[in-house]
Amino acid sequence: MHIVFLNPQGNFDRLDSYWTMHPDFGGQLVYVKEIAIEMAKLGHKIDIITRLVIDSSFPEFSEQFDSYENVENLRIVRIPCSSNEFINKEQLWEHLDEWTDNIINFYIEEGKMFDFATGHYGDGGLACAMIKEKKGIPYSFTGHSLGAQKFDKLNNNFMNFSELEKKYHFTKRIIAERTAIKYSDKIFVSTLQERDEQYSHKLYFDANIKSNPLNFIVAPPGANTSVFAPYGSNKDGEDLYMKIEKTIKRDISKSRQLLPFIILASRIDEKKNHIGLVEAFSTNVKLQERSNILISLRGIENPYDDYSSLKQDEIVIMDKIMKVIKDNNLLGKVMFMSINSQYELASTYRYMASRKSVFVLTALYEPFGLAPIEAMSAGLPVAVTKYGGPSKVLCENNKEFGVLLDVHDINNISEGINRLFDNYQYFKEQGSKRVLSKYTWNVTAKIYLKAIKEVVSNPYNVNVEVPLYFKSKDLNDLDTNFIIKRYE
User: In terms of CB atoms within 10 Å, which end of the chain has fewer, N or C?
Assistant: First the structure.
């Protein structure tokens, strides 16, 4: 089969440029890349379609075609859309009609359309719906994280609705997601909990799950076990280890430099709740006596000197972290390091595992939690938020594969991490077994392919009519009261 992945949000290149450095370059890019590679290895023709960007700030995305080293049957195809410069995901909605027309024309010129499309995030799903309406090609939707959950976290009794709408364009996003859900042939979720919590939300429930729950396919993401291996790879090197040790000597007090670390490797984002971990650490003497903190901060070499190049939202979070550090005498106990690729991250995990360190994710909500799986694959025991998908990943049939945290309770966070250290070898082994038995990308790709083959081999009436306002260049007339009415 010829399968395409539609991803107007974020970009792909062979070096995974800017991953974790920009909010548009998050975990869903890892997800798409790894499934696409596994599908290609299984003999299918795969295209990852994204935007062509001719922008001096993002020079890696200026060529129409790209590929991954030593991967056959897979190409990255960049299709022009609107202006050449990079556009943040919140600004893309009104350009998707043009983008999908350009995608269709590209394949017409090549001489053959693809068999199936997979849409990721709301904009990719909406693009799939548009192509289905125009050409009758079936598609699946993988929402990753739906807008309603983010809205609920940030909404404060609608007192700040106008501000949120202006910044995040929630109305456009949620109506786009509803359209993607309604006309999809299959919807992929990481867990049943994701289906039941995200897609049963009052802003989506009538769009699909109520009328056709069988459309949902559970396909848990996996770890790239060749990259996130517990033992060294050819990407490991003395330079990285020297960098780690040099940073330890820079940030950590001499008497504490042999202690293990609590690793926070997610991007600086309010919903990732770094501050919760730092506050929990600040109040627990036992945790401070046995460990330091390592926070990944890509692109910033020494935030104790300067982090002014971060985005304003990130600066606000860093200001809070630094205040907790200084107010609670944590200088010499918290280390920041710029980790610039998946390979560096995996190597850092291995190095830290040799020091009996742990991985912690204190996100307020995590739809699935790929990062903990990668950490477990590399040999680190994990303590992760209980809110969202990790509750199913780390606990099944009363068996624990890591420690679940109530991230709204700093005492629960510190007690959970202490428990992880107290039972280090047990949780290390449990995590490794869990990944190898259930969470690899090869398994995920096979689940996708089985569902896709069912759709392609049993086509039904695929003619749909996408709401006309998504075919307009101007979406400013959308009724922003849509969300408010749904909550009444």
Answer: C
Quick one: CA dihedral 325, 360, 349, 193, positive or negative? Answer: negative
For residue 242, give every residue at least 6 positions away whose Cβ sits within 8 Å of its Cβ, in sequence order, or none. none
Selected residue with higher pLDDT from 226 and 337? 337
- What's the chain's Rg over C-alpha atoms? 22
Supply 188's token pair: 């992929």
CA distance 318 to 297: 10
What's the whole-model pTM score? Answer: 0.73
Which residue matches tokens 């943040």?
A: 88
Question: Residues 308, 358, 318, CA angle at the centre, nearest 5°?
Answer: 15
Structure-token match 């068999």, residue found: 115
The arithmetic mean of pLDDT across residues 327-356, rounded, is 94
pLDDT band at residue 486 using 50, 70 and 90 as cut-offs: low
For 361, phi then psi, to 5°, come to -130, 110
Enumerate the CATH 3.40.50.2000 domain ranges in the chain, comma separated. Answer: 2-222+442-487, 238-438
pLDDT, tens digit, 9 for 90 and up, residues 187-198: 999 888 788 888
CATH fold label, 2-222+442-487: Rossmann fold (3.40.50)
Question: Taking a C-beta distance cutoff of 8 angstroms, is the pair 297, 337 a contact?
Answer: yes
| Residue 467: band (very low, low, confident or very high) from pLDDT cuts 50, 70, 90 | low
Residue 323: count other Cβ atoms within 10 Å of its Cβ: 12
Distance CA 316, CA 275 (A): 11
Secondary structure of the chain in the HEC alphabet?
CEEEEECCCCCCCCCCCCCCCCCCCCHHHHHHHHHHHHHHHCCCEEEEEEECCCCCCCHHHCCCEECCCCCCCEEEEEECCCCCCCCCHHHCHHHHHHHHHHHHHHHHHHCCCCCEEEEEHHHHHHHHHHHHHHHCCCEEEECCCCHHHHHHHHCCCCCCHHHHHHHHCHHHHHHHHHHHHHHCCEEEECCHHHHHHHHCCCCCHHHCCCCCHHHEEECCCCECCCCCCCCCCCCCCHHHHHHHHHHHHHHECHHHCCCCEEEECCCCCHHHCHHHHHHHHHCCHHHHHHCEEEEECCCCCCCCCCCCCCCHHHHHHHHHHHHHHHHCCCCECEEEECCCCHHHHHHHHHHHHHCCCEEEECCCCECCCHHHHHHHHCCCCEEEECCECHHHHCEECCEECCEEECCCCHHHHHHHHHHHHHCHHHHHHHHHHHHHHHCEHHHHHHHHHHHHHHHHHCCCCCCCCCCHHHHCCCCCCCCCHHHHHHHC
C-alpha span between 85 and 52 (Å, rounded):
9
**Token pair for 146:** 């739906």
Q: What mean pLDDT is predicted for residues 406-435?
A: 97
Closest CA to 42 of 437, 444, 473: 444
